[in-house]
TrEMBL record:
Subcellular location: Cell membrane
Transmembrane residue ranges: 6-27, 34-51, 63-87, 99-117, 146-163, 192-215, 227-254, 261-281
Top-level division of the source organism's lineage: Bacteria
Name listed for the protein in its UniProt record: Branched-chain amino acid ABC transporter permease
Organism, scientific name: Arthrobacter mangrovi
Entry's family note: Belongs to the binding-protein-dependent transport system permease family. LivHM subfamily.
InterPro entries the record matches: ABC_transp_permease (IPR001851), BCAA_transport_permease (IPR052157)
């Protein structure tokens, strides 16, 4: 029983990281139809920014951790906004060029990060509480998993409130339904586009800092490895569905954890099989709308 509890909670922690990356992907595609292959770079730059702040302010303190989260989210948001303004804005409705430019940006940023911080993983320290465990129904749960779960829940709540209770949130939801109608009403959807990229980048940057604590290191390849599963989550949940991304993040992470433990480390393979089944029998995703 304790093993099942451990797998459940650690799976939820991993799913929280997947959601922080996939939520931005889902929002960006839902409003703009942009498959952003450079999204992992927002995560990586946020992780490195958070690490740089932490090591300069005392990596083992809660103050340092909280500041690193804020800085990581801010840097991810700024990088995402810069990407949309300089690169993506000129390429709307040109999907091949979008893919090429975002893939190129992801490769270029990996090379840039390797040039600045090196190719080897940088192992990090956090508050002492992170390295401790909490007993939950007989299972010893690493404390940092709880932080990831709480952060993802707050981000989900914040995004839902933003989309449903604010003017720009209504514009974004209307743009998802009918972008041409929103434009015809005289609303400058370009600001909404930049805002969505910024929100997605902030979530990814936050996810990068938390991922560095979850895995115990930060490296130039961290964002790329998580981006693969974030794309899987986004497709399974339904492109453009924030709720679908949340449900799929939990489902994929739990499936991965249990398969790794009970099926001899085949978690990644089982997740790909699940993706294939969804594409075959429900191409719109679990909570996506049929075109």
């Amino acid at each position: 029983m304790s093993t099942v509890i451990l797998l459940l909670v650690t799976g939820l922690g991993l799913g929280a990281l997947y959601f922080l990356v996939a939520s931005g992907l889902s929002l960006i595609y839902g409003l703009m139809g942009v498959l952003n292959f450079a999204h992992g770079s927002f995560l990586t730059v946020g992780a490195f920014a958070g690490w740089e702040v932490a090591r300069r302010t005392g990596a083992d303190s809660w103050f340092s951790f909280l500041v690193s989260i804020l800085i990581g989210a801010a840097v991810g948001a700024l990088f995402a906004a810069f990407t949309e303004l300089v690169l993506i804005r000129r390429l709307y409705e040109r999907h091949i060029e979008q893919v090429l430019i975002t893939v190129g940006l992801s490769l270029a940023t990996v090379a840039l990060f390797e040039g600045i911080w090196g190719t080897d993983p940088v192992f990090i320290d956090g508050p002492a509480w992170f390295s401790q465990t909490t007993n939950l129904l007989g299972a010893q749960i690493p404390n940092d998993r709880f932080i990831s779960i709480i952060a993802a829940a707050l981000v989900l709540l914040g995004m839902v409130l933003f989309l449903k209770r604010t003017r720009y949130g209504m514009i974004i939801r209307a743009g998802v339904e009918n972008r041409s109608m929103v434009t015809a009403l005289g609303i400058d959807v370009r600001k909404a586009f930049t805002l969505v990229f910024t929100i997605g980048g902030a979530a990814a940057g936050l996810g990068g800092v938390l991922a560095s604590h979850y895995f115990g290191y930060v490296s130039p390849l961290l964002g790329g490895s998580l981006l693969i599963f974030a794309f899987i989550v986004t497709v399974i949940g339904g492109l453009g569905s924030l709720t679908g991304a949340a449900v799929a993040s939990v489902a994929v992470a739990l499936l991965q954890q249990f398969a790794n433990f009970y099926l001899f480390g085949t978690g990644d393979f089982v997740v790909v099989i699940a993706l294939a089944l969804v594409l075959l029998f429900r191409p719109s995703g679990l909570l996506g709308r049929k075109s």
